[in-house]
Amino acid sequence: MKVYWPFGHAGLKLVSLAFAVVLWIVVSGEETVERGLRIPLELQQLPAGVEPAGEVPTTVDVRVRGGSGTLSRIAAGDVIAVLDLRSAVAGRRIFPLTADQIRVPFGVDVVQITPSTIAMVFEPGASRRVPVIPAVDGRPAPGFIVGPLSADPATVEVVGPESAVKRATEVVTEPVSVDNSRDRVRETVTLGVLDPMLRLTAARSAVVTVQIVPAPAERILRARPVHLRNVESALTAQAEPTAVDVTVRGGRETVARLEPDDVDAYIDLGGLGVGEYELTVHADAARDAGVTHIQPAMIHVRITSGK
Predict the structure, then answer these.
(1) Which domain holds residue 87?
(2) CA 284 to CA 269: how far, in whole Å?
(3) Per the count of CB atoms within 10 A, which of 36, 129, 146, 175 is most buried?
(4) Do the strands 199-200 and 59-67 form a parallel or antiparallel pair, or are they unpaired?
(5) Among 83, 36, 99, residue whose Cα is nearest residue 64
(6) Pair (130, 186) in one structural domain
(7) Under DSSP, is residue 50 helix (H, G, I), strand (E, B) or coil?
(8) What pLDDT does 13 receive?
(9) pTM of the predicted model, to two decimals?
(10) Are residues 194 and 240 in the same domain?
(11) CATH number (domain holding residue 200)
């Protein structure tokens, strides 16, 4: 028969006793305080086929009690309220919220919960497919407009409370930038629903294609004088011919409002010395119109010494 010897492993027992005494001194020496917290509300065990409708609470307020040191170390996520929805059915339901449903660190007690009950409305769940509507941002280059838009996939499935699903008409995309574009723009963007009660079942992104097409109206501004820019000092320059016809394109109202002085035809002579040149004519148009053609496109320029 084995006899128990109370003084066996005396060293380990003394060390354990010392740790226990130190821990008791530390804990008993802390001041007990209360602290108010706003904590997240976590919804669990929602039955299949039932969806929360209306405003869904996301936080509750609690007052907790514990040692001052313990409470000072509480970080975000250390205290969470958990609401069990397994009994939820269609209609208005009220769920009590008790201290047992609050997850707290060791040494912390819950003394008050506000609100003490959570009221929620539930509806049967539903789903259906709705079209994806692309969004664009910016303006194409002058003389061009946004043409047809398409998305792949063209439709996606949304899920949520029955009433919200019935109201759903579209899923939107992040804006696709077409700023200063002259050709087709294609971009993969994120999808989203505007109603917070709805969610997507699968697709989270779509490939959006934006066609950039010439604006529908054109106009020819005739005999626009050609300006010779950046002529080197001590040199003179002459152009032949001295004027060109400029064709502009844009929206009908924009083109109709253009004045002849809104179009500037020019040749840049920077860095050119004495001689004769065949140079390309450039033109800028105001009022969001684009230059599509210059006739003649090149003209003869003679540069001579100014002395």
Answers:
(1) 30-115
(2) 17
(3) 146
(4) unpaired
(5) 36
(6) yes
(7) strand
(8) 66
(9) 0.59
(10) no
(11) 2.170.120.40
